[in-house]
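# step 3/5: fold
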Amino acid sequence: MSEILDIARLGHSVLRQPAEAVQNINNPRIQTLIDNLIVTAAEARGVGIAAPQVACTSRLFVIASRPSERYPHAPSMQPTAMLNPRILARSEAMEKDWEGCLSVPGVRGLVPRSREIEVEYCDRHGNLQKDILTGFIARIFQHELDHLDGILFIDRLESSEDRFTETEYQKIIIDC
């Protein structure tokens, strides 16, 4: 049975540490972690979650995009575990858009990210996957990959004027 895990919050040292490569994808501990990340993200209404966010230093995250009050325009996709992920190429085209983080509750920001990325990762079965991601899914991948390198979205803000409270963010997106 999957377990909802506690989410590390801003200030927890694990969020600033580089994560370590997953050596044995078939390890039952890793497979359980994947299942727990999926249910934890769903419970927290997140569109992605990285292992460091639950105080685990493994290089893996789950992308689980779906519309919610946090991201009303998010595309729907099946939760996908990505182990030892990396970006192979980035578009020069950048896009500044909204991000939040389960580890930084109550804060939103306009973060510049590459609009399109070519990525590589192992799936939960150990199969190497390559893909080109665009738009919101590319944004989630870059956000979660940052977690594996000890970087938070607030570190990527270009200005303090790009930071908002959750309440102000909700007012802005409701008016859109």
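# step 4/5: annotate
The radius of gyration is 15 Å.
# step 5/5: archive (pending)
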